[in-house]
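Q: What would this chain look like folded?
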Amino acid sequence: MITVVLRASELQSHFRIHGTPVMIGGGVLAHTLIGASCDPDNETNVSYLVLDPHYTGKDDLKTILGKGWVGWKDNNFWSKKDFYNLCMPLLPSGI
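A: My prediction, written as structure tokens:
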């Protein structure tokens, strides 16, 4: 969790400049980050827009949002005992 929290401003910059999702994995977990919001008065208060890449099913927003397949998560979402790797794809130059 600490790595993700410390990288919140870097994540925001990545989304602003590149606009590509960030793949994140740790232990047996895998998620896709599609946004990050940081409280300007308290940099440790971060919310992450998380998409679970394991969803299969109909394109039904009520189910997807209601069951938490996509949603804003706070710092408590991340396991404190696991290490997370972040893959931050860059757009090719000139795009």
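Helices lie at 2-6, 8-17, 61-66.
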